[in-house]
Write a structure and sequence with these properties.
- The complex is a heterodimer of chains A (about 325) and B (about 60).
- Chain A has helices at about 5-45, 55-65, 70-85, 90-135, 150-160, 175-180, 185-190, 205-215, 220-240, 295-305; strands at about 135-140, 165-170, 195-200, 245-250, 255-260, 265-270, 280-285.
- Chain A is of the alpha/beta class.
- Chain B has about 60 residues and is mainly alpha-helical.
- Classes of the chains: A alpha/beta (about 325), B mainly alpha (about 60).
- Chains A and B meet through helix 3, helix 4 and strand 1 of A and helix 1 and strand 1 of B.
- Strand 1 of chain A pairs antiparallel with strand 1 of chain B.
C-alpha cells in the first residue's frame, strides 16, 4: 500500500470517527434540551413555580393518574362535543377530510403493492417477448387438418400469396395432403402463385417410404400412388410455365417444412404415426438475427435439397 | 351521557365511513389493476401478439 493511499485511508477513518463523536455530543445535547422542555411542560401543566422534589413529583403524578378518567372524558368526549356543537360544519368537514385522507393512503398503499407484484410479471413478459421475437415464433396450431378452412392453412396461404413472397419450398413426405390432392389446401394456391416452387418428396419404393406408409396405416402401394399424384400435379404446374422443381430423398421423413420468403411452417413426422396433419404446427417469422428458427430450418431445407441433387424428379 | 352518545356516534360514523371507503377503494383498485394469468389451452391455436415497431423502439 502506498503512502498516499495510507494517508487517504487514515484521513477517511479520522473523518468518520470525528463524525461519530460529533453525533454523540449532538445527541446528548438534544436529550438535555428535550428533558428541559418536558420539565417546562410539566411546570406549566401543574402551575409550578419551582423545580419539584421527587416526592412532590410523585404526588403530582399520582393525582394525575387518579384524574386520568376525567382527563379522558374531557379530551375525548367534552372537547369533541364542543367542537361538534359549536362548529358543526367545521367538524363535519374535518371528519370528512381526515377520513378521505385515511382511505386514500390505504388505497394507495394497496395499489402500490399490486403494481409492484405486477411489475414482476411485466419483467417476465418482456423476457418472454424477447425470446419469441428472437426465435421468430409466430403461432402454434394443435393440428393441420384441413376441411374447407383452417386458421393455420389460411395464414400460410396468405403468406404464400403476399406480394413480397418470391418462393415456396416444401419438404414433405408424399405431398398429397399439402398440394397434390384436389382437396388439399395448397392445390389451387400453387396454381395461382407466380414465384419459385421447390418440393422434396419421399423417394418411391425406398425403405423409409415403406416404413412411413406402415406408420400412417396405408399400404406402400397406396403411399407410392400418393407421391405419383403429387408429382403429376407438379408436372401440370410446370406445363403451365410455372417455376417448379422437385427432388426425391431416400431418408426417414422427420421435419415437414413449408418455407416462404417471410415465414416458415414446421411439423414433425412422428416415427410411429399418426399422419402428419394430426401433429401440431409451429409457424415462424423471418427474424433479423440469423439464429432465429426461420433461418435454421431454411438451412436444413437447403441441406436436404443439395443432398438430393442427384434425385431430381423429371417434371417434363 | 348525551355528549358521550353524540361523540361515540360521530366516531362510529367516521370509522364506518373509513372502513367503507377502504373496502370500496380496495375493490376498485383490485378491479382496475387485476391481472389474471389465463390458462392457455394446447388444443386451441396460440398466436403470438406482435408489437408494432414504433412501440418496440419507444
Amino acid at each position: 500500500m502506498g503512502l498516499i493511499s495510507k494517508a487517504k485511508d487514515g484521513a477517511k477513518s479520522s473523518f468518520f470517527d470525528s463524525l461519530k463523536e460529533g453525533w454523540k455530543r449532538l445527541r446528548n445535547w438534544l436529550f438535555t434540551l428535550l428533558a428541559a422542555y418536558i420539565l417546562s411542560v410539566i411546570q406549566i401543566v401543574y402551575g409550578l413555580d419551582h423545580m419539584p422534589s421527587w416526592s412532590e413529583a410523585g404526588t403530582l403524578f399520582w393525582h394525575s393518574f387518579l384524574n386520568f378518567p376525567a382527563f379522558i372524558q374531557e379530551w375525548l368526549v367534552s372537547t369533541p362535543f364542543e367542537l361538534i356543537s359549536d362548529h358543526p360544519i367545521l367538524a363535519t368537514a374535518t371528519a370528512i377530510l381526515l377520513s378521505g385522507y385515511l382511505v386514500l393512503v390505504v388505497v394507495l398503499i394497496r395499489a402500490y403493492r399490486t403494481l409492484n407484484r405486477q411489475s414482476e410479471l411485466i419483467k417476465g413478459a418482456d423476457d418472454n417477448a424477447a425470446l419469441l421475437s428472437q426465435a421468430g415464433i409466430k403461432a402454434r396450431y394443435p393440428h393441420a387438418k384441413f376441411s374447407s378452412s383452417s386458421a393455420a392453412w389460411d395464414a400460410l396461404k396468405q403468406d404464400i400469396m403476399s406480394p413480397e413472397n418470391k418462393f415456396v419450398y416444401v419438404l414433405g413426405a408424399n405431398g398429397i395432403d399439402t398440394f397434390g390432392g384436389p382437396s388439399s389446401p395448397l392445390f389451387n394456391t400453387f396454381e395461382t402463385f407466380r414465384g419459385t416452387v421447390r418440393v422434396v418428396l419421399c423417394k418411391p419404393d425406398c425403405k423409409p417410404m415403406k416404413g412411413r406408409a406402415l406408420a400412417v396405416g396405408i399400404t406402400a402401394r397406396e403411399y407410392k400412388k400418393h407421391i405419383q399424384t403429387s408429382v403429376k400435379r407438379l408436372r401440370f404446374l410446370r406445363s403451365k410455365q410455372k417455376s417448379v422443381e422437385a427432388r426425391y430423398y431416400d431418408g426417414q421423413p422427420n421435419w415437414k417444412l413449408i418455407i416462404t420468403s417471410q415465414s416458415l411452417w414446421v411439423q414433425y413426422y412422428l416415427p410411429g404415426g399418426p399422419d402428419v396433419d394430426q401433429t401440431p404446427v409451429w409457424t415462424m417469422s423471418m427474424t433479423e438475427n440469423q439464429d432465429g428458427f426461420y433461418h435454421l430450418f431454411h438451412m436444413e431445407f437447403d441441406r436436404v435439397w443439395e443432398r438430393c441433387s442427384n434425385d431430381a424428379v423429371n417434371l417434363n | 351521557m348525551l355528549e358521550l352518545l353524540i361523540v361515540a356516534g360521530a366516531a362510529g360514523a367516521i370509522v364506518a365511513a373509513v372502513a367503507g371507503g377502504i373496502t370500496i377503494g380496495n375493490r376498485v383498485v383490485d378491479q382496475k389493476l387485476r391481472y389474471e394469468q389465463k390458462l392457455v389451452r394446447s388444443d386451441q391455436p396460440i398466436v403470438a401478439h406482435t408489437v408494432p415497431r414504433d412501440r418496440r423502439s419507444a
